[in-house]
Amino acid sequence: MNKSKIVTNCIKKVIGEETKEIHIHEPSFSDSNALEYIEDCIKTGWVSSAGEWVSRFENLISEYTGAKYAVAVNNGTSALRLALFIVGVRNKDEVIIPPLSFVATANAISHLGASPHFVDIEDSSLGICPSALEKRLDYIAIRKGDNVYNKFTGNKISAVVPVHVFGLPAKILEIRKICLKWNLPLVEDAAEALGSSISMSENKKRHCGCFGDMGIISFNGNKIITTGGGGALLTDCSEKAKLAKHLSTTAKLDHPWEFFHDQIAWNDRLPNINAALGVSQMEKLKIKLRSKRILHEKYKKIFDDIADIEVIEENTKSESNYWLSTIRILGKEPQKLRDEIISFAHSSKIFVRPSWTLINKLPMYEKSQFGDLTESYNQSKRLINLPSSPQLIKNT
Ligand SMILES: *Cc1c(COP(=O)(O)O)cnc(C)c1O
Q1: Per residue in 111-122, pLDDT tens?
Q2: In which element (H, E) is residue 182 found?
Q3: Quick count: other Cβ atoms within 10 Å of Cβ 293?
Q4: Which helix (H) or strand (E) holds 273?
Q5: C-beta 74 within 6 A of ligand 1
Q6: Is any atom of ligand 1 closer than 6 Å to the C-beta of 387?
Q7: How far is the CA of 77 from the centre of ligand 1 (A)?
Q8: Contact 162/172 with Cβ under 8 angstroms?
Q9: Do 141 and 134 contact (CB within 8 A), yes or no?
């Protein structure tokens, strides 16, 4: 049997012989209080962003992640753009990101008039490689007062944005050390990583998104929990949290009747109706996480016997939410085999997919600055995301 058929068979053995289309990640609202909570918004008339469900949702997120403050907004991209603005990213700046991410990581930077500067990844977490980051900064960066500049372009380097890809925690402790050394703000794109953490000592773990100045999560329809569309900023800093709320609500000063705004800001707050859905989803998070881990372990077991294919695992001392279970094709010339595997799976209505086109290869980012991206190119040819919806595990 050829490899592509073998892979599809392995997936079918794990998820069962489904007759319907199987997508990478689908939302689920079964056995939840979704309808009841949304009905409350409609009955009371509180559907927009002022409303009690928003703060309820924010409290649940801050409680769960351990971040002192969580500020809910209308999507993950807005959350990232706000976080970057708050840590000081402005027009013409450069922000360091990995090329292997969803395009939103770069778009949020561009929305502020800044540009992404790409640094390579490493193969175990698929996140920014700490030593590549260190090398790149040693080569391009120069300190002037409190700021860091790219000595070749003259632009300010104003933040580093590691991404926890597919929910796998990046090597954030090492990355943070480098940011501290250079006095560079650290904003974690934890859009995919609700439920992922790093163990800090025997019985203490810290949630992804809580290591730097700010972190962000997405609640888009394909993420581990969804609010339809939505996102949140995480921070331990009360000033930053306050500013996030202020800037996401048109910078209006609190007053019983005056409409006074003290700066140009955005309208980014999460509507109450979406927050109500979010609360019902947070109530199911633990179950979803458990199912995803079981699903991952089933994939791991079945692909263990298949030569030249491995299931990507969390690093020791870290815990992935396994948002997307992912296989890596080993050996030479993986791209042809990858495409054959994907194509065959699609013919069986199993819509697996490759990792995103590297962001630096997209037309609008081709002219961005970048370091050596060898590992990003290497890995991006080898990865296939498997069907990962928690509801693929029955009765959990
Ligand atoms: C989903 C995602 C975002 C953006 O979130 P939206 O809610 O879709 O705007 C940003 N970064 C990464 C890595 C993502 O996966």
Answers
A1: 999 999 999 999
A2: helix 172-182
A3: 20
A4: helix 272-282
A5: no
A6: no
A7: 6
A8: yes
A9: no
